[in-house]
Give the backbone structure.
Amino acid sequence: MGKLRRHRLLMLAWLTSFLGLALGMLLYSLRDNLSVYVTPSELKALKHVPKSLDLGGLVAQNSFFRLHGVQVRFVLTDFQQQITVFYTGILPALFREGQGVIVSGALQNNGSFIATRVLAKHDENYRPPHLPNTNGKSNKESQ
Amino acid sequence: MWHRWISLLSPKGFLRGTKFWARVLGVLAILLMGYGLFAGLFLVLADYQQGDAFRIIYVHVPCAMLSMSLYFAMALMSFSTYVWRLKIADMLAANCAILGAVFAALALCTGAVWGKPMWGTWWVWDGRLTSELVLFFLYLGVIALRSAIADAFKASRACALLSILGIVNLPIIHFSVNWWHTLHQKSTLLGLHTPTMADSMLWPLLASMAGFCCFAAWWVIQNTRADILSQQQAIDKRGCA
């Protein structure tokens, strides 16, 4: 019986470690495709820019303008590169300057970006409105 | 000391040994969940950015945490079932699967309800959301597999194997927000920069999480007790006939 148990134990150990290894290799080779967005700097470094893509970064301070109705324009930045984004539609509740957002759309020939969807990214900080920010880095998501 | 724990491994010993502690867990669950949810949903001030919408954290985070801890518990029980053929561990694993599936579904639903107004979308195929969905399907797979095999012994072995192999998903869920750019935020409680939540908001959350844990333990133990009793009843009936 002792031998049988050891055999079962060993089999489980081999099975899980092989599966873990296989999955680890799979995720490692897919790592570039598993992220939901690229940053403006990553986009500039791309040799081949896809037709439509998701771009993530912060809405630059004092860059938000309402053009006409729900037509808006803002600058997306990662503090190294920045891209002007045009969007027509309703913005999520967390959208504001300094906030992390993910925009989906297409890069235009003139270097601006026309978005068909804007998602606001929330950070992991929570506090009531009257408390000062003691977290050091609030609205900036670590890129 | 040790023989008290070992006596829990037999169905009769489990019935005897858990009677009192299951009640204690039930009372603790009511108290902690009562305080955590009431304080979180009514007393705590709204968040500086999200307003009242942030209150869903008092349900979402405990559900998400338990969907993962219950999987870990199920895998542990499955391991004991597979290697030592413990009947009681198999029963506990079967009950963990059901409650775990419920919590995974709740975590996905509450997240979607929060995501629509805050992010601007119900769903996005990012690392965190997708791996949690895989966890939900793993639970459903384990439940389906058990009811698909008529022979109880074969069913328990197959379920144990699937549960143990599925554990590779747990680190993926946990680290997904650090490994990839995800729409889902990083962990508030287990993050590097602690605390990233004001104390007045944190205590009800911790109480709620502890309360949900007690509830889960109580639910799994009580259902396992019921399973043992109904099995004994079936054996008794056969003995009479």
